[in-house]
Every structure is written in C-alpha cells, then in structure tokens.
Amino acid sequence: MLSPKDIAIEDKNVLQEYLGKSESSTYNFTTLFMWAGSGKIQYDIVDGCLVLFFHGRHHGVGCTYPLGNGNRQAAAEKSFEFMNRQSGSPHFILMTEQMAEECGAVFGNKLRIYSDRNNADYVYLSDSLIHLRGKKLHQKKNHLNAFLNHYDFQYERLGQKNADECKELFLNWKQGQKNHGSGLSEEATVRLLDNVDKLGVTLGGIRVDGKLAAFSAGEPITDDMALIHIEYADTSIRGSFNMINQQFVQNEWSGFEFINREEDMGLEGLRKAKMAYRPVRMVEKYFTEYEGT
Question: Which InterPro entries does the UniProt record give (predicted)?
Fold first, then answer.
C-alpha cells in the first residue's frame, strides 16, 4: 500500500540516493523541497524505487515514473493503481525521455505519451551568458552596459546570514508586479532562503551603494551543468536582472559548460524572457494521459 509522505529537509540524503545526477530540474532535491509546501509534493519508496506525487497537477494526483535500481515496473504498476483509486485518471508527469520510453513499454496502449513543452528546461552555454556575444544578444548587452554606465556595484557571495535581506528584496519585487506571473511563489522562495546552508545551494548578489540590488541561488546538478533556482532584482534599477544573471554565472559557474534555468510553465512573459537569452537546447519532459484498457 502506497503511503505518500511530506518532503522535509531531513529527507535530503535519503532522496538524493535515488535522484542521482540528472539534467532535469525536476529531479533535484532543492527544487522538490522548495515546492513541497503544504503537501503539494510528496514521496514514497516503492519496491526499492522513489516515486514522487504531485497534488493538483493536471487533475488530482500525478506521479513521476519510479526512479532507482529497484523493481521499477512493479513500482510503476502500484503507482498507476494508486492514482486510479485517487482520481480514476492515472497519469505520469514530468518524465525524462528515458522514463517515457520505459513507461510506454510497461503500459502500452493504456497510456498515451505527450511532450510537455511548458515544463521543458532551458539550457544555455555559460560562456554565452557571461559574454553576451553576437547580434542576437545585443539587446541584453545594451541593458548590461546601461547598468555599468550608471552604477558602481559589487558582486558578493551571500549566505544564510543574508536570508532576511534577500526576502525583503523579493517581497518588494513581488509588490511591484501587476500580476505574479513569474510562477515563483513566495512560499517556495522563502523555503529556499530559510534553508540555504542545509540545502547546500550557492547564493550570490550584487550591491549598489551598499544595498542589495539583486540575488540568485543555484547549485551543480551534473559534472558540466549548474541549475539556477531563483533570481530577483530591484526593477527600478535598469539592467539589474541582466547584471545578476551575468555576474552569478561568471563568479560561480564559469567552470560549468551549461546552465539550466528551468522551465517557463507556459507563461508567455517568462517564455519570451527565457528565449531572449538564446538557449542552446531544452531538457525535454513528458506526461501521459489515460487511454483505458
């Protein structure tokens, strides 16, 4: 019998054994912990595999395809029955290409598999984000130069002691938005900032006249890729978002070839902003719909 449990910070080591190193932002403990508030994401260990449960996604509860070296087929079948009992419409979500192939082999015509463009991760070359070369990134370079022409700044490695300062900047940013279409909720951001040290993420910021003007948080996810979890800036300072984007990668992630800046969640403004930085590729994700027996 499956028994989903809430994700706590103390679960990091247990879950990390199953998550391993993945290019997908979904299969990262920090990502899961950030968004797990109020039981939105839960987990269970089934037949030696990790299964993640997402509540309220699509309809009812959706599961990830099992991760790990246990009996994935048995775990998948039990997850399928669990979802069927919960909503009558079992569906696996946020699957990698390998998971989608295995899921198709196990369930055949019961499930139809679709590409999930809204949740595909954007991947960039770190060198491109640092130097902004070429005509396609000319506008981004102009914003960066405008910042440099008007402000003296300092980049600073931040830490847990700066969490309240970062929260204040985030809340000021949020209040200035006509709609909170960035998709980054206050709860998720606060969960990360309250646990910077325990999560092991890197936090960096830029200061203008001694005041925090922007900050970002990220961590390595593979040997050649870093993942950016959050990024906020004072929008009254032109180019502040461009500057923290460039400075964070230059100071913390220049040794990694690729930067994963997560998905756009189907939000038009966020998609436009992410495409403007010219991703080199996407980390594709997939979901299923129940076709019946």
Answer: Acyl_CoA_acyltransferase, LPG_synthase_C, UCP018688
CA geometry: angle 229, 165, 270, nearest 5 deg: 35
Is pTM, for the whole model, over 0.85? yes
The dihedrals phi and psi of 14, each to the nearest 5 degrees, come to: -65, -50
Write down the H helix ranges in the chain. 12-19, 29-35, 72-87, 97-107, 126-131, 138-150, 163-175, 186-193, 196-199, 240-252, 268-276
CATH classification (class only), 121-262 = alpha beta
Domain residue spans of the chain: 5-119, 121-262
Residue closest to 32 by CA, chosen among 58, 50, 59: 50
**Domain 5-119: which topology?**
Aminopeptidase (3.40.630)
- For 138-178, how does the pLDDT look when each residue is reduced to its tens digit (9 = 90+)? 999 999 999 999 999 999 999 999 999 999 999 999 887 76
Q: What is the DSSP string of 125-148?
A: EHHHHHH--SGGGHHHHHHHHHHH
Please list, in sequence order, all residues whose beta carbon lies within 8 angstroms of the beta carbon of residue 289, skipping any fewer than 6 positions away.
91, 111, 112, 114
